[in-house]
Amino acid sequence: MSKWNGRPTDFLDEIEQDLTERQKDMASFALGRIISASPVDTGAYRQSHTVSIDSEDHSTTASTEAEGKATIASLNVPYSTVYIQSNSPYGERLEHGHSQQAPAGVYGNAALATKERFTR
Fold first, then answer.
1. How many helices (H) and strands (E) does the chain have?
2. Do the bridges between strand 82-86 and strand 49-53 make them parallel or antiparallel, or are there none, so unpaired?
3. What tens digit of pLDDT does each residue of 96-113 get?
4. Is 1 a member of any domain?
5. Model pTM?
6. DSSP letters of 11-38?
7. What three-state secondary structure class fits 83?
């Protein structure tokens, strides 16, 4: 058996960076699932998803997947909260199956897919 001479704190920075990278992977995956599952009529709902770090974003400005992924990429502190949300006035109706394109909703399915992919 080998002897370990290091202190646990020696690895703290590495562990925190690994956690942050894992969180970025999970958030990027979830965002991609949300956007790809979003029903499209005018495209407004697909562009209504916003990403923010550590606080909700209540704006209603259009956003792109690239902007969301850039926000996720800027995450550099472990244990942060990543918010992916839509402030669309009809987002809640879509989540409850009011679209033939997404009869089972969008966010709930993305959450389940993310959990399945990243839970081992």
1. 4, 2
2. antiparallel
3. 999 999 999 999 999 999
4. no
5. 0.89
6. GHHHHHHHHHHHHHHHHHHHHHHHHHHS
7. strand
- Please give the tally of structural domains in the chain: 1
Residue 78 within any structural domain of the chain: yes
**Quick check: is 4 in a domain?**
no
In sign, the C-alpha dihedral spanning 102, 106, 112, 118 is positive
Q: What is the rounded distance in angstroms from the CA atom of residue 12 to the CA atom of residue 16?
A: 6
Q: Residue 79 belongs to what domain range?
A: 10-118
Cβ neighbours, 10 Å, residue 51: 24
> Would residue 2 count as lying in a domain?
no
The residue length of the chain stands at 120
Q: How far apart are CA 5 and CA 80, in angstroms?
A: 31
Residue 89 neighbours by CB distance under 10 Å: 11
